[in-house]
Amino acid sequence: MMAFWYVVAFRIVAVLPVWLRRVIARLIAWGYFAFNTGQRRGVFANLRIMRPEASHRELSRLALRTFGQAGMNLVDFFEIPSTSDARIKSMIMNFADIHVLLEQRSGGRPFCLVTGHYGHWELAGAMLGLGGYRTHAIALTQNSWVVQRLYESLRVRFGLTAHDVRFGLRDLLRHLPEGEVPAIVSDRDYANGGEEIEFFGHPVRFPRGAALLSFRRKLVGIPGFLVRQPDGRFLLKFGRPINPEASDERSWVR
């Protein structure tokens, strides 16, 4: 059933005008907010930790915006197969500066991009491919072979190699082609073996994969996010680079 709806969504989004896609995204977001009690509670719980001083009304506004961004990301993802390379580039405000920005952060050394489920990570993968980078990601395998084929077609188009989450880190530790870039979505501890750190005053488990890979392969870790702007386009933002000469993997994470 999931495969059917994915295929339908890709087909429908390809022929809809942009304004109608945005309306659909908002309807999806409002529907999830209203009826998905579990996700709504989870978002509220996280926001209370981040903004303990906020009123319930303010938290509700932020939660609805969070769902709204997720809805927009979903519709944008369904647009990608029918969107030209030129159009994708135009969606990213500083696309022309990617090489300069990464050169500045990495100092010309090999690097690993570290990101999370914030902004638009799927579009960021397309952006890197269009920027000329051969990238490697660690990804979950989809339950439906139809959905998996859809993802694989996008990855081939943008030069991204996806490694199964069960052994992708091992593969990259053994062999990462020279000049190619690992890009790790590193904010969910799938293996339950993460490093315990304090985040917003609370102990959490942070995955060690990006740290392990960067430390052992002597890569500069560069935090990066593709963030939606008020006009609907995206801005690529990079954080402070993480030195690969850290004393050990634990200090790299921290």
From TrEMBL:
One Gene Ontology cellular component annotation held by this UniProt entry: plasma membrane
Pfam families reported for this sequence: Lip_A_acyltrans
One annotated GO molecular function: acyltransferase activity
InterPro entries per record: LipA_acyltrans (IPR004960)
Record-level GO BP terms: glycolipid biosynthetic process
Location in or out of the cell: Cell inner membrane
UniProt keyword annotations, A-Z: Acyltransferase, Cell inner membrane, Cell membrane, Membrane, Transferase
This protein's name: Lipid A biosynthesis acyltransferase
Domain of life of the native organism: Bacteria
Transmembrane region(s): none
